[in-house]
Design a protein that fits this description.
By secondary structure, this protein is an alpha/beta fold. The chain has 10 helices and 8 strands.
């Protein structure tokens, strides 16, 4: 069943668990992700990122994802991840996606606000949810990020009030991609962000989840994270399984199954298993 991000995260906040956003790159990864959600009876945020559209053209991704979401027996939010171009985000909304992310984290603060307000106006008119990012989650190959780019709690209060955003991605020391060194998370900062955002009803989002320890995940969810983004981990699992298979046909199935098992493990860890 197709639902919004706001609906999924509202239940997650009430029951204090995390929900995974798992990005698909092709049919096999999408199937693995959805099969995991069905097996675990977990709500699901199924995403495709703007940066991956050269790999899978958006019209194909949208058709695959929409069909799966409508046929699913668990709540599924279709999410357009890390949208930076207005036209791309509008295409996702027109395709029926129930959630979009406007990533203005690399923009000056006021421009990030202005862009988020514009996207919120369009998405909310269509009944969709909006995620934005404050602070900046960098790339793992560049290190784990500078503390100067971490999300400021008081600025978060101002940002939420001015934009009306439905979920806020925060920077606390994670990074996108495969880590070269163990990340050190600023949990005390996260706790403060949760303290100030909770009264607004705006759930917090963790990007750069691939490569974190189980303890890291538990700490972040305990301190207010309700949406956890996972992508690189799935790509690595699928690649290992495919390369180990004896042929193309068996490799495709092995890649799908490896994604399924990786997602199932995360759903159990995040606490979303059995919540659908």
């Amino acid at each position: 069943m197709l639902v919004t991000l706001k609906e999924i995260l509202q239940d997650a906040e009430e029951k204090k668990y995390g929900v995974g956003l798992f990005n698909m790159l092709n049919l096999e990864t999408a199937r693995g992700i959805l099969e995991a959600a069905e097996a675990e009876r977990s709500p699901l945020i199924l995403g495709v990122a703007e940066v991956h559209l050269p790999i899978i053209p958006f019209p194909y991704a949208a058709q695959i994802m929409m069909h799966m979401a409508k046929e699913a027996s668990v709540p599924v939010c279709l999410h357009f991840d890390h949208g930076t171009r207005y036209e791309a985000i509008m295409e996702a909304l027109k395709a029926g996606f129930t959630s979009v992310m406007f990533d203005g984290s690399a923009l000056p603060y006021e421009e990030n606000i202005a862009g988020t307000v514009e996207i919120c106006r369009a998405a909310h008119a269509l009944g969709a949810s909006v995620e934005a990012e404050l602070g900046h989650v960098g790339n793992a190959q560049d290190g784990n990020g500078e503390s100067s780019q971490y999300t400021d709690p008081q600025q978060a209060v101002d940002f939420i009030a001015k934009t009306g955003v439905d979920a806020l991605a925060v920077a606390i020391g994670t990074a996108h991609g495969q880590y070269r060194e163990k990340p050190v998370l600023d949990i005390s900062r996260l706790a403060k962000l949760y303290e100030v955002s909770r009264p607004t009803g705006t759930p917090l989002v963790l990007h750069g989840g691939s490569g974190l320890s189980d303890e890291d995940f538990r700490n972040t969810i305990e301190n207010g994270i309700r949406k956890v983004n996972i992508c690189t981990e799935l790509c690595l699992a699928a690649d290992r399984a495919y390369r180990a298979a004896p042929g193309f046909e068996t490799g495709v199935v092995a890649a799908k199954d490896s994604v399924k098992e990786a997602v199932r493990a995360r759903m159990r860890l995040f606490g979303s298993a059995g919540k659908a």
